[in-house]
Amino acid sequence: MNDIFNLILSEKIKWTPTNDEEFTFSSIYKGKLVKLRMNDFPDEPLCTLFINNEERDVDEFPENWSLLKRRTP
């Protein structure tokens, strides 16, 4: 499973905001739903990447990731 995490970290990914309070962003990568949770940085890693039941902490965003801003009412 580490291989898919490494691929996602090296690929161009367009993240879409969600309405889920726990998982702030999501994307589809090679047919798999990938979720991104923003953490309490700097006390915790910047974010955590989730694929299926696996997770990996990320300390800085790859330059090739695009995060769209959440709309606020």
Task: Characterise the protein shown here.
By secondary structure, this protein is mainly β. The chain has one domain. Helices cover 12% and strands 41% of the residues. The chain has one helix and six strands, in the order H-E-E-E-E-E-E. The protein has a six-stranded mixed beta sheet with strand order 5-4-3-2-1-6, covered by helices on one side. A hairpin with a 7-residue loop joins strand 1 and strand 2.
SSE map:
Blueprint: H1 2-10, E1 13-17, E2 25-29, E3 32-38, E4 47-51, E5 54-58, E6 65-67
Parallel strand pairs: 1-6
Antiparallel strand pairs: 1-2, 2-3, 3-4, 4-5
Short key terms for the protein model shown above:
73 residues; six-stranded mixed beta sheet; 6 strands; 12% helix
